[in-house]
Structure formats: structure tokens, C-alpha cells
Structure to design on (357 residues):
């Protein structure tokens, strides 16, 4: 039963998230809220591991989140369910390419999906901030990392490295 | 253009799946190297078209791009093989890491590292929002959709599916209203 729910949730995620791996986060957040298969804190860990390991971030997150439910079986179900909609959608779009691009409803739908995804992702970010930035050490780390975004390269590895190191140091003093 | 066998197709995407780090646009230079230059299966123009479409369609962008390539080279089986190819290595790597981390969670040092890393994740989400914002919030109606989606999600915990359904409806109504006003 849990596998069926897992399949449906990740199929839904694959079908409705537009804009790449991060766009699946609002769905992963809802899954954590609704089913409690992993906590919000664990969702942060899932995202971190997924970004620093090879492979598409969205695939990594689904595999890991699936693992949290029922181990490797969960990983298989979640990952396959996530990519299944792509298979059907892209075959359909390839067949109707010209008509698809000109269709009024398709165009206005695609127009709306991205800002909606962006808004939902911002909400997840704020939820994560509320949970994780709760004391002085975490605020210090946040301030340093935020300062880094102003002129550092966007390679996520730098942020994880800095976050991890400052985390160890700050924890020694607090 | 020469067409690949299904096995060749699988292995090219298996390799691409390992090389892919960072997500998003990275898939384009990788597939340019692996498929356009080395193999000559598709042109750079084809690849850019697939990538552009993949970005605006639902699903993981790298997987979508792989599916387009696979389908156009070897039909439905090709699409399936390409998907399986690109997800194989990330799948194995994540399962291995998840297994190891499960056993390490009691170590305080790991906890301390993830304490800081968890905050780095917030920064990455912030950067992702900023990047998506530039493509997606391009005029007033899209700003309304952004704000509506944010509030519905943050304050009311409304399910993403309903938010998206609402956004689509609003988008269609706005476009229809625009057409009427244009007359």
C-alpha cells in the first residue's frame, strides 16, 4: 500500500513540476507534510546529498526520498514514477511538435507553470529557513553563506563545503 | 546521420548520468560532447531545441532532454532506453550513500556537518528561485501567479496540484482577456 502511495505521489511530482530538479521540492515538501516519510530537516539533507552527487538533482532526490520510505524498493518505485510522465509527454510532444507549439492553451499553460513553480519553491525555501535557522550559530552560518552569494561562483560545492566547515567550528563554541 | 544501436544509446546516457553534476544547463555541454561531436547522431540545433522544450515541459530537464534524443533516434524503445541509461548511475550512487549515511547518523561530527550544510541548502534554494524568477516572472500577470502561488503554499499549505491548476486557469483567462482587449 505504501508503495502504491509512493508511486502516485512521485508520478504526480513528475507530471506537475516544471523547471527542473528544484521544482520538485514543493512536492517533496508536501509529501513530508502529508505522510511523514521523512521530516523537513531530513528533506534538507536529501537535497544536500542530491546536489553534491552525480546525476540529475531531481532523480537523486526522488531516489533518496524513496529510500527513506522502504529502502531500495522505495527508491526504484519513486524514481520510475517520477520519470514515467516524461516518457509519455515527450513522445506526445514529439509527434505533435508544430501544432503543440502554436496551440493557444498549451502556450498559456506553459506561461503560468513557471511562475507558479517559482512561487512554491520560494515558500519551501522559507519553510526550510524557519526550521533550520533557529539559533545564533545557524544565523551566523546563514549570514556568511549569504555574503558568499554576492561575489562567489555559483558552484554549490563551495556553499556545502563552507557550510559544513563553519558548522563544525561554530558547534565547538556554542 | 548514423543511428545508434539501443546498447550504444544506453551506454552514452549511462556515461552522461555519471558526468552530470550540478543539474540544469550542464546537460547541454555534456550531450554536445558525447552525442553531437563524438557520435554525430544529432546536430547542435536539434539539441538546443530539445533542451528548450525540456525546460518548459513537466519533469526533470536532463531526463526530458534524454527522452527527446532517444525518441528521435530510436522511437519509443529508444526513449525508454535513454531514460533508464541516465537514471542508472545516480540511482546506484544514491542508494549506496543512503545506506552508509543511515549507519552514520549517530556520529556527532556528521550531525555538525549537516547542521551547516542544511543552511547551505537554503542558500541554494534562494539562488534557484532567483534564477527561475528571471525566466518566469516577466510581466504583471506572471507576478500575480508567483505571489499567489507563494502565499497559497506558505500561508495556507495548499497542495501544489491545486496551486498549479489555479495558475493554469488564471493564465488562460488572462490570455483570453488579452485577446479580447486586443480586438
Amino acid at each position: 500500500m505504501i508503495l502504491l502511495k509512493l508511486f502516485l505521489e512521485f508520478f504526480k511530482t513528475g507530471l506537475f513540476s516544471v523547471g527542473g530538479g528544484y521544482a520538485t521540492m514543493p512536492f517533496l515538501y508536501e509529501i513530508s507534510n502529508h505522510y511523514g516519510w521523512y521530516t523537513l530537516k531530513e528533506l534538507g539533507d536529501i537535497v544536500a546529498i542530491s546536489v553534491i552527487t552525480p546525476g540529475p538533482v531531481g532523480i537523486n532526490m526522488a531516489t533518496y526520498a524513496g529510500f527513506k520510505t522502504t529502502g531500495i524498493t522505495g527508491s526504484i518505485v519513486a524514481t520510475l514514477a517520477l520519470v514515467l510522465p516524461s516518457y509519455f509527454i515527450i513522445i506526445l510532444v514529439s509527434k505533435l511538435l508544430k501544432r503543440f507549439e502554436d496551440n493557444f492553451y498549451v502556450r498559456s499553460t506553459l506561461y503560468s507553470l513557471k511562475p507558479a513553480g517559482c512561487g512554491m519553491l520560494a515558500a519551501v525555501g522559507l519553510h526550510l529557513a524557519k526550521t533550520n535557522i533557529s539559533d545564533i550559530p545557524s544565523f551566523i552560518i546563514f549570514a556568511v553563506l549569504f555574503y558568499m552569494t554576492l561575489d562567489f561562483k555559483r558552484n554549490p560545492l563551495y556553499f556545502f563545503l563552507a557550510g559544513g566547515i563553519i558548522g563544525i567550528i561554530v558547534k565547538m563554541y556554542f | 546521420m548514423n543511428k545508434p544501436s539501443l546498447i550504444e544509446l544506453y551506454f552514452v546516457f549511462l556515461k552522461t548520468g555519471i558526468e552530470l553534476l550540478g543539474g540544469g544547463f550542464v546537460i547541454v555541454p555534456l550531450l554536445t560532447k558525447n552525442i553531437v561531436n563524438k557520435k554525430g547522431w544529432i546536430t547542435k540545433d536539434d539539441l538546443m531545441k530539445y533542451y528548450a522544450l525540456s525546460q518548459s515541459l513537466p519533469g526533470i530537464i536532463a531526463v526530458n532532454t534524454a527522452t527527446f534524443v532517444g525518441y528521435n533516434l530510436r522511437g519509443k524503445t529508444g526513449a525508454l532506453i535513454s531514460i533508464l541509461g541516465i537514471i542508472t548511475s545516480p540511482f546506484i550512487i544514491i542508494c549506496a550513500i543512503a545506506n552508509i549515511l543511515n549507519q552514520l547518523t549517530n556520529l556527532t561530527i556528521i550531525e555538525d556537518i549537516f547542521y551547516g550544510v542544511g543552511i547551505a541548502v537554503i542558500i541554494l534554494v534562494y539562488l534557484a528561485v532567483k534564477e527561475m524568477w528571471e525566466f518566469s516572472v516577466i510581466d504583471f500577470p506572471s507576478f500575480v501567479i508567483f505571489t499567489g502561488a507563494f502565499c497559497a503554499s506558505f500561508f495556507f499549505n495548499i497542495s501544489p496540484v491545486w496551486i498549479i491548476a489555479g495558475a493554469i486557469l488564471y493564465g488562460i483567462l488572462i490570455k483570453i482577456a488579452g485577446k479580447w482587449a486586443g480586438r
